[in-house]
Design brief:
The protein is α+β, with helices and mostly antiparallel strands and 251 residues long. It folds into two domains: 71 residues, Alpha-Beta Plaits (2-Layer Sandwich), CATH 3.30.70.3550; 155 residues, Leucyl/phenylalanyl-tRNA-protein transferase, C-terminal domain (Aminopeptidase, 3-Layer(aba) Sandwich), CATH 3.40.630. Helices cover 32% and strands 22% of the residues. It is built from eight helices and eleven strands. It starts with 7 loop residues before the first helix and ends in a 15-residue tail after the last helix.
């Protein structure tokens, strides 16, 4: 969830060798093809739009949008899938010490758009620039936030936003989208706080989408897509926790 690779090479392979499912942006039919029909890289469909209903339909079936600004909308369901089961969260001793020292103030859902804009900003690990968090994506996920489905966690130091993350929640599943950090451990603290809260609320799965050293060190694992879809169906049977989130207690 921290930094997706460029999709250009994936799109080229898919376009020249396999069936392409195209979605109609003007259709009332928001259904997606079965995820089993995705390309080897996980690309399942092209086109459509980012309206709230379509995004929710995608997430309910383990699909998410990810594309560069000069591409059509690309929809993905990778196999294997990187997930973090909240009860298996692993926090290193050093990170736990950082957490317990209360170096950061942590809030939920106080500045969703600002978190997205920070996630979309330049990052040292990507000197070539560019972002998959396009202006259209920002508007679409802010609409999801206003509808009560998308949420952010913010970390603050001396009144300044220094880290955070955002994602989508449906039933007992949280889909992590992106995170940012302006000082050491700022995003890690946000993630730990969120996962512990999700565990308290009975969430069953945190979807990291793709593996990264960051989330793997915190206990994420790769599982087959079929297994992920099974966990997702169970999690989606739980009621949605819509609206602005208020965390319980301190961690």
């Amino acid at each position: 969830m921290t930094g997706r690779r460029s999709t250009i090479a994936f799109f080229s392979r898919f376009a020249y060798g396999l069936i392409m499912f195209r979605l109609d942006a003007h259709s009332h039919d928001l259904r997606f093809p079965p995820v089993e029909l995705a390309s080897p890289e996980g690309l399942i469909a092209v086109g459509g739009d980012l309206r709230t209903g379509r995004l929710l339909e995608a997430y309910r079936h383990g699909i998410f949008p990810w594309y560069n600004e000069d591409q059509p909308i690309l929809w993905w369901s990778p196999d294997p899938r990187a997930v973090l089961f909240p009860e298996r969260l692993h926090v290193s001793r050093s990170l736990e010490r950082t957490f317990r020292r209360n170096l950061f103030d942590i809030t939920f859902d106080t500045c969703f758009r600002d978190v997205m804009l920070q996630c979309a900003g330049p990052r040292p690990q990507y000197p070539e620039g560019g972002t998959w968090i396009t202006p259209d994506m920002i508007e679409a996920y802010c609409a999801l936030h206003n509808a009560g489905y998308a949420h952010s966690v913010e970390t603050w130091r001396s009144g300044r936003l220094v880290g955070g993350l955002y994602g989508v929640a449906l039933g007992g599943a949280f889909y992590g989208e992106s995170m940012f950090s302006r000082i050491d451990d700022a995003s890690k603290v946000a993630l730990v706080r969120l996962v512990r809260q999700l565990c308290t609320w009975g969430f069953q799965i945190f979807d990291c989408q793709q593996p990264s050293p960051h989330v793997m060190r915190l206990g994420a694992e790769e599982i087959p897509r079929r297994e992920f879809i099974g966990h997702l169906k169970t999690a989606l049977a739980l009621p949605d926790r819509r609206g602005a989130w208020t965390p319980d207690g301190q961690y």
